[in-house]
Structures are given as C-alpha cells and as structure tokens.
Amino acid sequence: MSVGDMSDRSITPSPAAPKDDERLRRVGRVSRLLNRPELGAVSGLALVFVFFAFAAGSSGMFAADGVMNWLTVSAQLGILAIGASLLMIAGEFDLSIGSMIGFAGMMIAIPAVFFGVPIWLCLIFAFAGALLVGFINGYIVIRTGLPSFIVSLAFLFILRGLTLALSILFSNRTIVGGLREKAAGDWLAPVFGGRIGLGFFQKLAEWKIIGAYPDGSPVVPGLPMVVVWWVVLALIGGWVLTRTRVGNWIFASGGDAKAARNVGVPVNGVKIGLFMVTAFCATVYAACQVMEFGSAAADRGLLKEFEAIIAAVIGGSLLTGGYGSVIGACFGALIFGVVQQGIFFAGWNSDWFRVFLGVMLLIAVVFNNYIRRKVTGER
Amino acid sequence: MKSLSRKLAYGIFAVAALVTGASAQAANERFVLISHAPDSDSWWNTIKTAIKEAGQHLSVTVEYRNPPTGDLADMARIVEQAAASNPNGIIVTIADFDVLQAPITNAVKKGIPVVTINSGTQEQSARLGALMHVGQPEYDAGFGAGKKAKDAGVKSFLCVNHYITNPASVERCKGFADALGTPLGNQMIDSGMDPSEVENKVAAYLKANPNTGGILTLGPNSAHPTIRALEKSQQAGKLFFGTFDLSPEIAKAITDGTINFAIDQQPYLQGYLPVMALTLNARYGVFPGNNINSGPGFVTKQNVALVRKLAGEYR
C-alpha cells in the first residue's frame, strides 16, 4: 500500500522539476483529484448532508447556532482525529487519548485553582506534561515491542485513574471549577477559549444573514478557537503528511517498518513523535474545553479515543497502517459530528440514538469505501 | 454496483420521508428535557414515564436527551443544540453550574422558557434566568439522612457513590458525613456503575472495615448490589442502611427491613410539572410564582406499602 501511495505522490510534478521530464506519467487534474484518499469521505459527507436536509432541514440544524453546534462537536473530534490518523498511518494506535483529555484538563485546573498558578503557566505545564506522557507511551511501545493497542490501553486506565485520584486528593472534588475568573485577562487563555471574528458576526446579524437575540447581539458571537485550531492543525498535518520528508517516513513506518528501517527511515523516532502528537492534540481539545466551560472534570473525554479512531477510519485511514489522510480524517470527524448532532435535531427518540448513529456511520463508511474503490479502481 | 447505490439512495429518502412525516404530525408545542444521566441510569425511567404521559395528556411533544456517557461537556452541547432547534421550552438539570451556565443563559436570552429540575439549587436556577426549579436540595437531603442515622446511633458509615464524577452525588455523601460529624475521606467509595463491581467493592470495604455502622447508597445503581452484598455476607438488617431514590427492589428491601429508609425526590413530579407549567405558559401565559420542592420525602416501613406497587414507574 505504502509503496503505491508514495509513487502516487511522486508523480505530482513539483514546481522545480522540468516540465517535460519523460519519467513523469501525465495525470489529468480531475483524475488526480479523484484519486485522493479523502474523496470517499467527502462523498459520505455529501450523503449525510442530503439526508439531514430532508430529516432535519426545518429544525434549526442549518441555522447559524445549529451549524455552530455541530461544527464545534466536529472540530473537537477532528482535532483528536488528526493525531489519531497520523499515528494510524504510521501503524500504531493510541487508546489513551480519551483519558488524556481528562488528565490534561486537570493538569490545567488543579495548579490554577489550588496553587494559584497563572493560567498561561498551567497551560504550558499541561502541554509539557502531555508531551511527556506521549513520549513515555511511545517509548514503551518501541522498547517492549508490545502492540501499541495494549500499551495505550494500560495508559487509558492509568491516566483515567490518576485523574480521579489526583483530583480527589487535591480538591476532594471530581469537578474543578472556577477557572473562568482566573482566566480573565490572561494572555494565553483566549488562544484556547476565545472566539474570533466578533465584529464580522455582529455585522452578519445586522444584515440578517444569521439570527440575533432580541437584544440585537448575534446568536453566534464568533468562531470558537476550537474550530480555528482544528483548521490550523488539519492544514499543518495535511502538509506534513503529503508534502514533506517526514510525511514519507510516516507512510513508510506504517507500510513496512522493517523495509523502512533498512532504507534509513528513523521509524522509532517517527512513532514516538506521533504518540506525542496524539497527546498534544488531546491537550488542545482539553484546553479548549476547560477554557470554554471554566472547569475540568475527571470524566471528560470518555470514549473519545474510539470516536477519534472511527473518524480516522471513515476518513479513509487503514486500521493496518500505511494508508490514509489527515484531511480525510477531518471529513470523517465532520460526518460523525453531523450525524451525532443531526440525530438530536431530527428529534429521534434518544433510546434509539446509538442504533441510528451506528447505522448512519456504517452507511457512510460503506458508501465511502464504495466510491473510493470505484474511482481508484481498487479491488 | 449501480443498483446498490440506487437502492441505498431510495432507502435513505424513504427514511428521511418517514422522519419528516413523523415530525410534521406533531404540530403542537415541543419541549426538550435534557438530563445529565448516562444511558445506564435506570432512575430516569420514571421521568421518561412522566414526560410521556404529560405529553399525551396535554397534546405536546416532549423529547428526552442525555449525554450517553454522562460527560457534562457533551450535555452542554446538547443544551446549545436544543436551543438551536427553537423548542417551546427547555427542561434541564443543573448538573454543573460552570459548564451549563453559558448554554442555558443563551437559551434564555434567545427567549426560550427554561425550567430547571433535579440537580442544582434554586439560587443557581434563578441566576441562570430559569422560570423555576423543581427538585430536591442535595446537601440538605444528605444531611437529613445523616441526622436519621445519628439518631439511630451510627458512628461510622460507608457512602457508595456510583457516580463520583457528578458533584451532586458527592454533596449527598458530604451532607451525610457532616450530620454525623465525621470527615468524609475514605468512607466514600467510587463504586462504578457495573452491578457486580459495586457488589464486590462494598463486600471488600465491609470486610476491611468491620466496624462500619451504616451505609448510604445514592440510588438504585448502588443500592441493589449493596443489598446483595449484605445478603451474601448475612449482614442484611444488621447495618443501618439508607438510600436515595426508589425502585421495586428498594421498596422490597424496606419491607424486609434491610433498608431503613429511602429518600424519595419524586421524579415523576420533576418530569410532569415542568411540562405542565411550560404548556400552560405557552398557551395561556400563566405560570406558578415559586420554585417547587419535589422532595425529600422519606419512605420507611410505615408508608412503603403505598409506594411499592408504583415503584420504578411512578415513584
């Protein structure tokens, strides 16, 4: 898989190469577009949108605050899915990211609330701590040769347990609140909890493009930073994966680690680095959530590791590694977010929620695979 | 393969048509009740019965929504989302004030009538701009239970917390401990939701702390396995045992003498009354002037017969 994929990318002419190099196979713009791994996810997304346009079109799902609702949910999951898909392409799993969200949240909240540490320092501390956990996670996988599934499963419990134990130890509570007041005036806090484009959304409300409250302020006061982080991380992740040497290393590590080592790819470094990336992504998620809600809780991020993997798989990443795309994973997260929230908008009985969710996801993945096979001619 | 995609498309349109058809029929007022309870919490069945019956009696639609894993940040998203769908009213638990503050106040700002139920205090409800609160003050209820235990001569206790991440459950244990005048500490255990785990954790705690005088469980999820643990170790009826909430098993244990009392917060009222109040508000502009305390009511051996046949559905 990886070999085919790498040659795919090498035929994309780089600007520096002479235009009529006879070694380059000419590929039309359209077929190049159709060959991208994220195509299936895009079609799946279109399908989901059509479905909910019928099922929930009049429910407010596509009004400004409705859109912001499923977009925020998708953005949170998308941030996780970026890390998860990169690691999955490199042939490993990290099941500890859900627990990492709760743990990172507490790393921000406990120092801030109980030791009076300024928020910016808490955020830096949390990121440093998360990167360390990611490093340990990856290092154990590499050194023991155990499947990452097992190692990160252990960390799923260790981190969740630590989160609960430490929050009870320091605060005798499982939800640490009161961060909103502490974050006021902090220079780093708005990077995670703030909103941008305030004036723009105000104008949109004045022009009646989006709804407004009776007092004239827009129902969506701005673009939450979690969405900005999602877009930025997706662009960086997508660029690294498809346009840089590190990207080739990631594909090679997941395709055939032994062969990759033989040609000089630093497989261990790549894998450990990507475990750190997943921990980083989980911490971005946690920081945005803690800053938005003003509190950290021991059960935040429950089961999110599976949702992130689902998003990556919907987005075309192979569970066996060596194939996939970051942008696809983002579309996968968008499908998941739209379906998950759309079911609420459609007004279905919540007893059946998970059945609908499962069925819709299955349809999206089957459809996505079908389109991809058809277009790429894969069997 | 072409026929497959066509079939798929037909299927989707059929389902979509069905769904839109179904929602078009319910042209009356639509309310959304949002709880913090994970899917596995059976206590909420009574509320589901209440809103279903209220919906039928008043010809309104009431949707029940909850975060499947009990994650309160997910719950906040559901509140935002309910507000975006422009219902005639929102009924919501104040599981955590910090987390829910922004979504609930935004719904109020949008002009959607909000009633808070169950968790949270009346002051918090007022600060959020809700019309009223229907519930039972958690700390006070725990404190009341603790006073009963103290009168019975209990000095040390075990609080079986099956939902430790919810601050309201910790409040209950804390109220109980304060009434007894003992520090909380290790006397509260994180039992988890799985019945066999709860049972074994309780059994292990009682074995390690044989001098425990009383037990407080926070609902059916922790009470049922605790009853079994006591029965297995033949301690049923020997320990002072109080619990929150009712279920058929708890009612039976009260009759048997295994459980001394259950604190009933009468969830049926928490489901039914807000729907009724919001409907009357939407139709005639009338609304009660005060908050409503649906509990605490103590169910003991004396009044359990009355309660018993309704347990699990209405009580």
UniProtKB/TrEMBL annotation, chain A:
User: Could you tell me the membrane topology recorded for this protein?
Assistant: Multi-pass membrane protein
Tell me where on the tree of life, at the top rank, the source sits. Bacteria
Task: List the molecular function annotations (GO) for this entry.
Answer: transmembrane transporter activity
The record's keywords, sorted A to Z, are:
Cell inner membrane, Cell membrane, Membrane, Sugar transport, Transmembrane, Transmembrane helix, Transport
User: Which InterPro entries does the entry link to?
Assistant: ABC_transp_permease
Q: Where is this region: Disordered?
A: 1-21
Membrane-crossing residue ranges in chain numbering: 39-64, 70-90, 97-117, 123-142, 149-170, 222-241, 309-340, 352-371
The protein's name is Xylose transport system permease protein XylH
- What is the source species? Elstera cyanobacteriorum
In terms of PANTHER family, this protein maps to: ABC TRANSPORTER PERMEASE PROTEIN YPHD-RELATED-RELATED (PTHR32196), XYLOSE TRANSPORT SYSTEM PERMEASE PROTEIN XYLH (PTHR32196:SF32)
Where is it predominantly found? membrane
* Function according to Swiss-Prot or TrEMBL: Part of the binding-protein-dependent transport system for D-xylose. Probably responsible for the translocation of the substrate across the membrane.
Record localization: Cell membrane
Q: Name one GO cellular component term.
A: plasma membrane
From TrEMBL, chain B:
Quote the Pfam families the UniProt record gives. Peripla_BP_4
Instruction: Cite the entry's keywords alphabetically.
Output: Signal
| KW Signal (keyword) present | yes
Q: Mainly localized where?
A: periplasm
Residues of the signal sequence?
Answer: 1-26
| Family per record | Belongs to the bacterial solute-binding protein 2 family.
Protein's name according to its UniProt entry? Sugar ABC transporter substrate-binding protein
